[in-house]
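Reply to dn_fold:

You asked what the input looked like. This is it:
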Amino acid sequence: MPTMADVARSAGVSVATVSHVLNGTRPVLPQTRQAVLDAIDELGYTPNTLARSLVTSRTRSIGLAVSAISNPYFTEILQGVEAAALEEGYSLLIADPHDDPGHERRVVQLLHERRVDGVIVAPSARPDGLVGYLARHAVPAVFLDRAVDAPTDPAFRFDQVFAENAAPTARLVAHLAELGHRRIGLVAGLPGLSTTRERMSGYRHGLAAAALPYDERLVVHGDSAAGGAERATAELLALAVPPTALISANNAMTIGALRALRARGLTVPDDIALGCFDDFAWADVFSPRLTAIAQPSRELGATAVRVLLERLAQPERPARTVRLPCSFVHRTSCGCPEQPCA
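and this is what came back:
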C-alpha cells in the first residue's frame, strides 16, 4: 500500500508539502499541488482520515442541515454544497430538520457529535435553540437561505449567505402593475422566516412604487407548502373582489396555487395572472410558462462552503453576510406574449 512518503517521492516534493496539500494547512503553489494530486491518483494513495483527524483535530467533513431536501430549490443548493465541498476535499453529512425548531437543534447536535468541522444550516422560523447550541459549543456555522438575528453574545461569530428577496418581489409586483393589475394577491411563506418577511416587504414596496394601496386581505400565508398555498389561494379567490393577479412566494406554493385555480376552473393568465418566486425545471414546461424569480441556488450552496472554510481558516475574523442577486425570468403566465413586453 503506497504511503505519503511514496507520494512525496513521486511528486518530487517533501512529505510536509504532501501533508499541506491533503490537510489544507498551508498554501501550496498550484503546480505543486497538482503534482501531488497527480501522484496520489497514479499511486492510488488513500489518506488515513481517522489518523489525520486525530493529529489535526479536523475531520474534513461539513454538516448540512436543510429542510425539505426533496424541494428542487434545496436539491440544487445541496448540489452546490456537495460540489464545492468535494473540490476542497471535504465530505458531507446531511440532515433534514423538517423546519421544526426542536428537531433542528437535535440534528445539528448529532452532526456536531460526529465531529464535523463546521455546519451549514437553513434555520427554522424559531432558531433560538439552534443559535444557543452553536454559540455554547463554538461550532463554526453558516446560516444559509434564511437570515438570523445576531446573538447577544458577541463572541459567537456566524456567517450568513442568502439571496435578495425584497427587490425581486417588488419587481414582480411592478411587472403586474405595468400590465394593468390593481388587485395583486400574495401567497406568503411561513411566518417567522426572514424570506417571508423580506418578500412581504418587497410586495409592499412594489405596491407603493406603483401607487397602489396595500390591502391586508390580499396577503395570505401559504406556510411555504403546497397544501397551505392551496388553502390560501382559495381564501383569496373567495373574496368579494378577488385579485386579478397572484404572486406565489416559493415554488412549492406555486404548485398549491395552481391546484386551487384548477379546482375552480380558472385558467392562467386568461382568468388570473401569476408570477412566482423560485424558478424550477417545470416552470418552463407548464402551459402557460411561468414568469418567475430565479434564485442562484447552486451558487448559494457553493458560496456557503467557501464562507465556512474561510471561517475555519480565520476563526476570529468578523462575521460576514453575503447576499446574491436573483434574476427575473419573463415567460407568459403574467399575460404577456412569448416575446418580452416593451
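The chain has twelve helices and twelve strands.
Hope that clears it up.
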